[in-house]
Every structure is written in C-alpha cells, then in structure tokens.
Hints:
The chain is of the alpha/beta class and 554 residues long. The protein contains 13 helices and 27 strands.
Amino acid sequence: MTIHLPTRLAAPSPGWTIETDVVVVGSGVAGLTTALHARAAGYRVLLVTKANVDEGSTRWAQGGIAAALAEDDSPLDHERDTLVAGAGLCDPKAVHVLVTEGPQAVRRLIALGAQFDTDETGDIALTREGGHLRDRIAHAGGDATGKEISRALVAAVSGRSGIEVIENALALDVYRDRFGGVQGLTLHVIGQGQRDGVGAVLAPAVVLATGGIGQIFSMSTNPSVATGDGVAMGIRAGAAVADLEFVQFHPTVLYTGSGASGQQPLISEAVRGEGAVLRDDAGVRFMVGEHELADLAPRDVVAKAIMRRMRDSGRKHMWLDARDFGLEKWERRFPTILMSLREHGIDPTVDLIPVAPAQHYASGGIRTDSHGRSNVRGLFAVGEVACTGVHGANRLASNSLLEGLVFAARIGDVLASGLPERHNPIDPSGDSAVLAASARRSLQAAMTEGVGVLRSRDSMATTLGVLNAVGETTSDDPHVQAWETTNLHALATVLTANAKMRKETRGSHWREDFPNTDDIDWKVRLSSRLGEDGILVTEREPLTVSEEVNWGTR
Ligand code: FAD
Ligand code: SIN
C-alpha cells in the first residue's frame, strides 16, 4: 500500500524574521540541556517551546534517573540490563555511550543545582525499577524527580545570557537550502507586538527536542503537548524515522473509569521497586511464575501479563497492592502519587489501587547517530523525539531522562567543532495541507483500538482505513490544534504502517496473529523516509552498529 503525506503544513507566510546560530525546539530535559551546551560552545541560542517553559513530560517524571552510581554497580551491568530490555534491537554503540557517559551527566546536573534524595550516609539514595538487576535509580522529592530536574535546568537557562527563550511558540516546518540541508524553521507565536503569528527563524543548526507522541492515543501518561510534532516535522523534512512501532505502554497507570481520556495519573514502577505487588480480582499475585523478576520484570512483560488477565477475566483493570508501606513511607517516598490517589478517593494504606496499561513512551523517533545527527544536514534530534537506538524494542525504566542528558551533551560536542554552513533557504515546495482539528478524536480512538497494547493485521488495517479517511478532512483554517492534528495524523500513519509490516512479537510490539519473536526475518530496524514527492519509503535496516553521519562541508 502506497502512503502519501504532505511535505509541509499549510500556514500563512512568515510576517517576521529572527536570525540565530542554533534553534532548539522544546524545553524538556533534552532541549534545555542542549541549549546550555550549545551556549557553552559559544553560539547564540534560541529555544522555542509551544507552551510554558516547564511543560512537557520531563516535569511529570516520577521514578527517577538510571545511572551506575553505586559501588556495587557498573556501566557494564547497566548496559546488560538495557540490552535485555531492548529485546535484541538496541544499537550497542548507543547503549555503550549512554551507560558510560551517564554517571558523569548526572553529576553535571547535580553541579548545576539539581538536588537528589540522599540516604542516611549522605550518598544519593538509589532504588530499583523493572528490568534493573541493581539499585540504580536516583530520585528527587521522593517521586518528583522530573519536577526537580526541570526546575534546575529552567533556572540555569533563564539566567544565561546568549540563550533567548520564546514560549507559546509552535515550530511548524524546517527550511531547506539548495543542497538539502536545514536552515531554520517556521514558527507560530502567540505573542504580542512584532513576534506574533507565523515568523521565520533562520539558523544553520536545528535541534528537535519535542518529546513524546502520547496524544495519538486516547489515554496516555503524557501531557497535552506530546503531539509528536518533532517526528512529523522530521518526516516532512526527509529525515529517516525508525522503531516507531515500539510504543511503550506503562503497566501501572491509575484506572480512572472507562470513559477517561487524555493524560492519566501514573503509579511509578518505583512503587513496585519498593515492594508493591500486582494482584488480580481473586487476590492472586499473577506476576509470580511469569518472569524471574516477578513484579519487577521489564515493562512489556508486566503490561502483557496485566492485559492477558484483563482479557481472560473481562475486567477493565488489575490491582496494585502497596498497603504494607504504611503512611510514613507513602508520605516520604511517594508524596505526589499519594496526593493524586487521594484526589481519586483512594487511600493506598488500606485500599488496593486499580491499574491498567496506557501509552507512556515512544522508543522510536528520528533516527540519529550517536551525536544526535539525523541524515539531513543541520538537523539534530534529542530526547524522546529521537531514535538513537538506545531503547531497541522496549525502553528500560528511567533510561530516558538519562538519554536526554547524555545525547544533548554530545550534540554540544559536535557544535563546538563548528556550525554547518549557512545558506539562503529556498522557497518551500511540494504539497502542503492542514487537517481539521475535529479529526483528532476519531484518530485517537482508531489508534487505541487497533494499534494499542495488542495488535493484529485486521486491527491495524481497520486503523489505516480510518487514518486514510482522516487524511481527507483537510481544512482551510490553519491554527495550533489543526497543525497538531496534522502532525498526529502523519505520525500515526507511519507508525501503523510499520507496525503492520513487522510480523512478529518483540518487546513492546505485541501481535496476536504473530505471537513469537522471529530473529530470522525480523531482527531488523524499520526505517522510513518521505521522498520529495510525498511518497513514504520504508526499508529494513540491518542491525549493525550505527555509522556516524558525515554531513560533509556543506
Ligand atoms: P519533554 O520533556 O516532553 O519536552 C518536550 C518539549 O517540546 C516541551 O517543552 C513541549 O512543549 C515542546 N514542544 C513539543 N512540540 C513542540 C513544537 N511543535 N514547537 C515548540 N515546542 C514543542 N523517564 C525517566 O527516565 N524516568 C522517569 O521516572 C520517568 N517518569 C515518567 C513519568 C511520566 C508521567 C511521563 C509522562 C514520562 C516519564 N518518563 C520518565 C519519560 C521521560 O519523562 C520523558 O521521556 C522525557 O522527559 C522526555 O524529555 P524530552 O526533553 O525529550 O521531552
Ligand atoms: C515510572 O516511574 O514508572 C516511570 C519511569 C520511566 O518511565 O522511566
């Protein structure tokens, strides 16, 4: 089946222009850290973000950040656990970079002012999460790790001359030059005065740090800004995207009722790391015997076990039992989750917590080398929007904050050796379109129904049918929700097509009709690129160590 997508968003012509050296899109852990490193390399940096500077998944992160900081731990152990979780599809070089440079990246964050919880000896307190064979998760404020990281990074960026931040600024599409490289982007600002409406940002280096894709599903742990804009921008720019079919569903998301939609409260895996267990309606601990790590098995294993029980019993959720913790431990270790449970009328010291899997993380994204470079000169991607190959078919818990820190620093290293050359941007060509914002609900429902935790050829074919119909609902009213919906559609289409193509079960990709892992035909990475004609080409990339991208002198 041929997939045809617009190569740019329909938008008004730019009414204003800014020139800078490096433009960073997104203000989560990845974007803020990149901005600091790019500035340290001596460049003028413009950081644009579509809502307030502290919005994004980063500030919601609960469990913590994984790094081999303990004396009885080592990067090699962390590497092994990451590779196991990735179910054979990790890029070994990228994983090696992550685990060896991770501890230093966390120490840099501490030097910047982030305060992690400590134990009675004053050392960083470390806990465990699913798939980790060591205690290596550093946390802050008990379960408010992301909030503390965001606070420290926003403070560092705010005080830094040479970094300009524009909030309420939605990046639309990149500019290209005649050699195919990137030369900045178009930006829609809800501002005042000169910088209002659509404008042009001219820069020879564009760093996409736009985070996750959660809003392509009806329910997700991700905030509302997670509409996959960066992946969609990358696709339209001709960047290769990979591993999109590997969507991680977090096993223990609070079940708030069958009609729930949008961002849902997470019950951190660290709650199981501290001893909570899963039970079914009869009180049976069903993870025992499923996996040697029982309730702390990798995330996909736990999510599948919960889904199977739900399917077999006809129930909408299972139960998490943390009654043993007692109030003191709940207040000290998980104050944010405790507050959220109370808001839903649950007292976890006496009640079981209803939980069900929901979308949580995109393991795939814009394919980069181990310095954040995409195949398009001048275009970088970092954080959840990127596919460095670190996560393979399933991300190991608490590896994503770390990935943002480590690879942002590496982009800083590349920039320090020189900017890509500046050229004039060329007038955009190709088909442009914007979809009606009202199509979002049917798109989300179709993705949830057909490309959720459990997938089959028929379920995904039905979803592709809905997506085709949604693609016809073009509008002549470009605005923020309509642009976001157009991005969701592009991303959902490529993700579903690739998920349908992958005829096996591996990591977080679970197919009812192909229940086994197939290492003979499917130990490959699906990599897709949109041609200038708007036709999507998908290739089976052999699973070798990633080559460093060489953009040459242009
Ligand atoms: P984000 O933090 O999501 O930031 C993306 C930024 O891009 C935002 O500022 C957004 O507004 C902006 N943006 C998006 N599109 C545009 C656009 N078109 N124009 C301009 N700006 C745009 N990971 C861990 O390692 N440990 C954890 O404990 C953990 N817990 C989590 C708990 C929850 C509830 C969630 C949702 C995620 C959790 N994760 C955790 C995952 C982790 O938080 C994210 O993967 C990580 O924070 C992503 O960082 P990021 O900088 O890539 O993106
Ligand atoms: C959690 O706290 O369970 C989330 C951790 C993660 O997504 O890495």
